[in-house]
């Protein structure tokens, strides 16, 4: 049986279940759920590229799991409020 995502009718993929289990394990072990991250200013170009590629791979994995949710969230964030009609004064045209 697959767990459902909060507020969604879709089922959580296997990777989601794995993440949930990891979170539960972290909470019970006393580990923080997040780790603050500082980026060193002394990396070599090769080290910087390795980290960049890791982040790119992470982005792809997140997208593969949450694609539909991310698309919906981006759509909602970019959605503007009601459009106010523009009044054009015919006497004030520049031509």
Description:
- The chain is mainly α.
- The chain has a domain at 41-78.
- 53% of the residues lie in helices and 0% in strands.
- It has helices at 14-29, 45-78.
- It starts with 13 loop residues before the first helix and ends in a 17-residue tail after the last helix.
- The model is unreliable at 1-5 (pLDDT under 50).
Features:
disordered N terminus; mainly alpha; 2 helices; 95 residues
Summarize the structure.
The protein is mainly alpha-helical. The chain is built from two helices and no strands.
Task: Give the secondary structure arrangement, pairings included.
Blueprint: H1 14-29, H2 45-78
Helix content: 40-55%
Oligomer: single chain
What is the ordering of alpha helices and beta strands?
HH
Radius of gyration: 23 Å
| Uncertain segments | 1-5
- How much strand content do the residues show? under 5%
> What is the distance, rounded to the nearest whole angstrom, between the alpha carbons of the first and last residues?
69 Å
Largest sheet: none
Overall shape: it is: elongated
Mean of all residue-level pLDDT scores = 79
Structural class: mainly alpha
Number of strands: 0
Question: Can you count the helices?
Answer: 2
